[in-house]
Amino acid sequence: MLRLTRRSEYGLMALAYLASRPREYCSVREIVEELKLPKRLLAEVLKDLSRAGTVEATRGPGGGYRLVRSAEELPLARVVEILEGPVAMTDCMAQTCELEASCIIQTGIGRVTSSIRNVLEDMTVAELLPASSEAPLAV
Amino acid sequence: MLRLTRRSEYGLMALAYLASRPREYCSVREIVEELKLPKRLLAEVLKDLSRAGTVEATRGPGGGYRLVRSAEELPLARVVEILEGPVAMTDCMAQTCELEASCIIQTGIGRVTSSIRNVLEDMTVAELLPASSEAPLAV
DNA sequence: TCGAAAAGCACCGAAATAGTGCTAAAATAC
DNA sequence: GTATTTTAGCACTATTTCGGTGCTTTTCGA
Ligand code: SF4
Ligand code: SF4
Asked: How far apart are CA A106 and CA B54, in angstroms?
């Protein structure tokens, strides 16, 4: 069904939350209390996002995570790639497939995959938030 | 990674093959020989497509499957829905999700899901085939 | 009546996913 | 310096999904 993994979903939720608190460090504890997510799992996800450079972290009391760039500059595709790997509908779009020789839909699938990639690259985390939500996104 | 299942992939390949042999009954044996797919699995997939009415079958020697309508009228979304269930990036797009109360991205995710649905509804099995569509491909 | 083919059902094993445990390192506060 | 808060890193388990198969029945044509 072309499902997002929970990791991606939680990650996007957390990033959207961070987007609503610009420049502020938010701890995992705070985020999971607000969003009601499994704490350890979200921690794992944010670690990955941190390693990948979409959020930055500080430790200790008052620490937490915040966005490195504004949410308008963070396409969904980027997040999904970090948390799940390349956006690809089939093997051949990411690695190789041993059926390529006899496959009659590869090029067609390539086109669909591109379209879906475009959707995910054109939409940003900022656009995930409902129109008049929480806070302005000004920096 | 938003992957298609193998069932969908095999299904699409088989349908594309049938599209290249209009009105002709093709047996599972013939199709898997041509496309090098696992026989029993493709049989299972075609059964599902048959139940759903996108292909029709006749049994016995010379039997097999063929498209009910032309491939131009068969959107990818239809095939994926039959073989995997509703096209939905998240639970809430298909059933319900117990996080909906605190979820801040649901509406946003809804928009992305719609876009992806549109991509899959706008593209048909006919368009999967490489440029010279109707040309029989084997030999 | 025989063989080719789909239909139906049930099952197994492997892989991906969701989620947790535990320890270390850094930043802060006293 | 010690305690506390918080991220970092690693490894592991449990569950679910998925890919694939076995076997029997039904239908059809020759
Ligand atoms: S589309 Fe064809 S080539 Fe690509 S992964 Fe699927 S079978 Fe392999
Ligand atoms: S987007 Fe929000 S409401 Fe929808 S499934 Fe994910 S968590 Fe639940």
From this structure: 22
Query: Domain holding A56: CATH number?
Result: 1.10.10.10
- At A31 the pLDDT is 97
Residue B40 half-sphere exposure, CB side, CA atoms within 13 Å?
Answer: 0
What pLDDT shows up at residue B134?
A: 45
Choice between B41 and A137, residue whose per-residue pLDDT is larger = B41
- To the nearest whole angstrom, how far is the Cα of A33 from the nearest Cα of chain B? 10
Beta strands in B10-101 (DSSP E): 55-58, 64-67
Rounded to whole angstroms, how far apart are CA atoms B88 and A49? 24
Structure tokens at B25: 């009954």
The answer, yes or no, to whether any atom of ligand 1 lies below 6 A from the CB of A92, is yes
D21 nearest neighbour residue (CA to C1'): B40
For chain B, the domain total comes to 1
pLDDT tens digit string along A86-122?
999 999 998 888 899 999 999 999 999 999 999 999 9
Pairwise CB contact (< 8 Å): B2 & A87: yes
**Contacts of residue B124 in chain A, CB cutoff 8 Å?**
none
- Spell out which residues of chain B touch residue A76, defining contact as CB-CB under 8 Å: 112
Question: Does A95 reside within a domain?
Answer: yes
Nearest partner of B74 among B50, B101, B54, judged by Cα:
B54
Q: Minimal Cα distance from B3: which residue of A?
A: A89
Instruction: Let me know: does B76 contact A112? Beta carbons within 8 Å.
Output: yes
pLDDT in tens, B4-14: 999 999 999 99
Residue A75's domain comprises 6-133
Within chain B, which residues score under 70 in pLDDT?
Answer: 132-139
Using alpha carbons only, how large is chain B's radius of gyration in Å? 17
